[in-house]
């Protein structure tokens, strides 16, 4: 505890000194000349040329273009009175402005008196843009933006591999999803359903962050996806409403609606979402041993009912200070009806057959609150941001199963109620310090995670449920993390730029199992996580990037919790409180040509990778737990290309090759090494001059893949769709069919010295979806990109 207090004091002292340095730097004479460019109706104008000239001889000093809000900013040294501004844009009169103050306020451009007939000038952002630490996919320049879901957009995004149930980045799983810089508050399964329910119309771009910089949490190796959405700039109301009908083996429906209001200083948004779905799951599982084996066949019907809401409020207290809050509520009710047959064999003869009927009834309620305060420290762009986050998550579930042994006619009737409580608290402060020759970012964060689990096991004896103490479990888990980071960015001449960062995280872990003190865990560890980004841009057509980042992959909470989860009396899943985190080094070399061809070579080294292991006792009871099994080396190459053979036809191509080499740390397992290739081809054909009617045809395939002790066989997905826009694109109707040929199957094998596990599963991924979305209110928009991170939520 003494170490914790000392480390806290050091971080606070470090931040205090940086703030003093920031205040001192304000004494520099340099000022930023700022303003906003609008037309005569006061609508902002983007891409306006703003040129700073010397007032004595009109010589060029500096130049910028206005952003999506019409705003611009440029430094002026040695007194602003020595300069004049020249402002020009096609179709408008050039304006010259004498500078009398640093903030020029609103500058109105007037249209040329003589207009050109039949001439349309369009400014387009590139489809693919490579920034120093991320790849940006500008959705607004593609035909996919209107009338689809965000999940559909992710399928088209370079570097991403998306199936109906998972998202990964060039071979990395456990991807974190952000909206406008805010980490999602939903778990992995819920976020997939959430993305399917959200319409794509307000998405501006998707940022793929394969090697997150020092500002972000070092935890997790899956990378990040940041979805940038629009937010109105006009004072007043707007909103949208959408509904979707999906037919799988059973029908499902989802809907969502939002209302947004903006005043001169405030923004308020309300969003609601709802979904009901049903699907079937077929699972076949085998365990093969020398003289014995086990065979399981499961048929399952899943029913999900979710409802959620979100409120966002932001208010500008002063021209320099802004406060805001985001509150999110989600409730999920699920009901799994399961039928299982489990056979046990010895010497090719049937020993016993267990028939199990079970239900899993779950209720998950989560509340998330984010509070933030932003303060501009000067006119040069120095900012201080303070944020606090709280999350409460209660995934309660009760499992009831009845198992009949066909040979002995013994019947086991069991009830397994479990109560789980997660509470997460975080607080952080971040400083952005742009100077004349470089930009500095620094900050500190404290997080606390509390997990309380109470797992019970009751047998039915003489019409009364009696607790089986040996199979009950209580687990209390505490985790605290102190973190601090510093990052610097600098341009090195006209062609080169570099960004480097260091992040330090120290974690204190304590897990207590009251019924079994031998399973208690108490540890702490601290590590430094460096990041480095190097960019070379020899021309407007070429970008070359070299990135390095070190990450930590902390186990999720269920993998640490030593509770025993029974699917029948002889099959047990159990966490491992002694499980260690794995550490990962990532190196990437990326090349972008003409903003539509992207080539990325990458190397990943992971030590102490963990996964599930299987042990079989003499009485044939199977115990599945988690262990640090192997070290892995991964080498890959990803290529994506977007082209338009004709104006009405857009093609997006992507291919990814990975080679994995795993070194097993435990003698019980067999490594699976080798290469794999996956690809996708997405076609969009538009009809009519205004492209109101579109046809989609997409195909992707993942060839056999090996990593660690696992071998995944090939699977594929073919999808097609139609989209029709009405009422000036305010109403969009979409018909979409997924997995037309039922190729999205899970065929997996896991290899150990004593056994081989074989899986053959299907998760009802073939479906037909009909959706409609209607938008109302004005459509002029601006970016909203407030960074409020809450990464700890992703480990649930």
Q: What would you say this structure looks like, in words?
A:
With 796 residues, the chain is mostly beta strands. The chain has 2 domains: 2-108, Immunoglobulins (Immunoglobulin-like), CATH 2.60.40.10; 128-795, TonB-dependent receptor, beta-barrel domain (Maltoporin, Chain A), CATH 2.40.170.20. The protein contains 4 helices and 46 strands. It has a 22-stranded antiparallel β-barrel. Strands 8, 9, 12, 13, 14, 15 and 46 form a 7-stranded mixed sheet that branches. A hairpin with a 4-residue loop joins strand 19 and strand 20 (321-346). The protein starts with a helix and ends in a 13-residue tail after the last strand.
Number of strands: 46
What's the average pLDDT?
83
CATH homologous superfamily annotation of the largest domain = TonB-dependent receptor, beta-barrel domain
User: Distance between the terminal alpha carbons, to the nearest Å?
Assistant: 26 Å
How many separate domains?
2
Biggest pleated sheet: 22 strands, antiparallel, barrel
DSSP helical segment count: 4
Structural class, from secondary structure content? mainly beta
Strand share of the residues?
over 45%
Task: Give the second-level CATH assignment, the architecture of the largest domain.
Answer: Beta Barrel
CATH first level of the largest domain: Mainly Beta
Helix content: under 10%
CATH topology of the largest domain: Maltoporin, Chain A
Radius of gyration of CA atoms, rounded to a whole number:
29 Å
Q: Which residues form runs of ≥5 with pLDDT under 50?
A: 1-5, 22-30, 114-124, 779-785
Q: Which outline best applies?
A: globular
């Amino acid at each position: 505890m003494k170490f914790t207090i000392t480390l806290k004091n050091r971080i606070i002292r470090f931040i205090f000194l940086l703030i003093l340095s920031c205040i001192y730097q304000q004494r520099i004479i340099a000022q930023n000349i700022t303003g906003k460019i609008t037309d005569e109706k006061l609508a902002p104008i983007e891409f306006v040329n703003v040129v700073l000239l010397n007032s004595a001889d009109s010589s060029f000093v500096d130049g910028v273009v206005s952003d999506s809000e019409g705003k611009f900013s440029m430094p002026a040294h040695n007194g602003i009175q020595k300069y004049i501004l020249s402002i020009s844009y096609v179709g408008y009169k050039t304006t010259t402005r004498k500078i009398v103050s640093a903030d020029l306020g609103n500058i109105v451009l007037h249209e040329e008196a003589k207009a050109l007939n039949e001439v349309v000038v369009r400014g387009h952002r590139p489809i693919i843009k490579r920034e120093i630490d991320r790849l940006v996919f500008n959705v607004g320049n593609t035909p996919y933006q209107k009338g689809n879901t965000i999940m559909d957009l992710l399928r088209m995004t370079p570097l991403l591999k998306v199936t109906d149930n998972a998202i990964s980045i060039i071979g990395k799983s456990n991807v974190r999803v952000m909206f406008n810089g805010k980490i999602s508050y939903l778990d992995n399964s819920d976020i997939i359903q959430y993305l399917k329910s959200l319409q794509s119309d307000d998405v501006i771009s998707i940022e793929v962050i394969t090697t997150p910089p020092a500002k972000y949490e070092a935890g997790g190796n899956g990378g990040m996806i940041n979805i940038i959405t629009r937010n109105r700039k006009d004072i007043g109301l707007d909103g949208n409403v959408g509904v979707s009908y999906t037919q799988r083996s059973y029908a499902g429906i989802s809907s969502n609606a939002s209302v947004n209001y903006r005043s001169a200083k405030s923004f308020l948004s309300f969003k609601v979402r709802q979904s009901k779905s049903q699907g079937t799951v077929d699972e076949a599982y085998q365990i093969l041993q020398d003289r014995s084996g086990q065979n399981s066949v499961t048929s399952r019907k899943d029913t999900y009912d979710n409802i959620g809401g979100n409120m966002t409020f932001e208010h500008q207290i002063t021209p320099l200070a802004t406060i805001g809050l985001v509150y999110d509520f989600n409730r999920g009710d699920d009901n799994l009806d399961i039928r299982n047959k489990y056979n046990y064999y010895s010497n090719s003869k049937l020993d016993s057959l267990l028939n199990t009927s079970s239900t899993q009834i779950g209720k998950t309620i989560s509340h998330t609150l984010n509070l933030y305060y932003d303060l501009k420290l000067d006119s040069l762009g120095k900012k201080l941001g303070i944020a606090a986050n709280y999350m409460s998550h209660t995934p309660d579930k009760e499992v009831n199963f009845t198992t009949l042994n066909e040979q002995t006619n013994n019947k086991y009737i069991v009830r397994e109620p479990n109560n789980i409580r997660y509470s997460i608290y975080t607080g952080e402060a971040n400083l952005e310090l742009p100077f004349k020759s470089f930009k500095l970012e620094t900050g500190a964060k404290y997080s606390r995670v509390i997990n309380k689990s109470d797992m019970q096991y009751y047998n039915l004896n003489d019409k009364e449920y009696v607790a089986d103490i040996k199979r009950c479990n209580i687990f209390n888990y505490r985790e605290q993390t102190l973190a601090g980071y510093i990052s610097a960015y600098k341009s090195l001449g006209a062609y080169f730029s570099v960004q480097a960062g260091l992040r330090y995280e120290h974690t204190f872990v304590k897990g207590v199992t009251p019924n079994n003190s031998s399973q208690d865990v108490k540890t702490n560890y601290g590590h430094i996580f460096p990041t480095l980004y190097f960019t070379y841009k020899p021309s407007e057509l070429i970008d070359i990037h070299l990135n390095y980042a070190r990450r930590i992959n902390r186990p999720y909470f269920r993998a640490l919790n030593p509770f025993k989860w029974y699917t029948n009396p002889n099959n047990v899943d159990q966490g491992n409180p002694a499980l260690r985190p794995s550490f990962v080094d990532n190196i990437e070399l990326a090349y972008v040509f003409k903003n539509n061809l992207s080539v990325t070579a990458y190397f990943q080294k992971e030590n102490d990778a963990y996964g599930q292991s299987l042990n079989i006792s003499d009485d044939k009871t199977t115990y599945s737990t988690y262990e640090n099994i192997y070290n892995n080396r991964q080498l890959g190459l990803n290529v994506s290309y977007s082209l338009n053979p004709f104006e009405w036809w857009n093609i997006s191509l992507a291919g990814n090759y990975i080679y994995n080499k795993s070194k097993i740390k435990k003698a019980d397992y067999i490594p699976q090494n080798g290469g794999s290739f996956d690809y996708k081809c997405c076609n969009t054909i538009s009809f009519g001059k205004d492209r109101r009617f579109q046809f989609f045809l997409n195909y992707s395939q993942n060839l056999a893949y090996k990593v660690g002790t696992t071998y995944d066989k090939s699977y594929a997905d073919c999808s097609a769709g139609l989209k029709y826009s009405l009422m000036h694109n305010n109403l969009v109707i979409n018909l979409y069919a997924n997995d037309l040929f039922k190729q999205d199957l899970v065929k997996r094998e896991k290899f150990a010295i004593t056994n081989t596990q074989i899986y053959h599963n299907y998760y009802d991924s073939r479906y037909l979806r009909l959706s409609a979305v209607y938008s109302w209110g004005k459509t002029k928009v601006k970016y909203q990109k407030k960074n409020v991170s809450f990464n700890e939520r992703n480990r649930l």
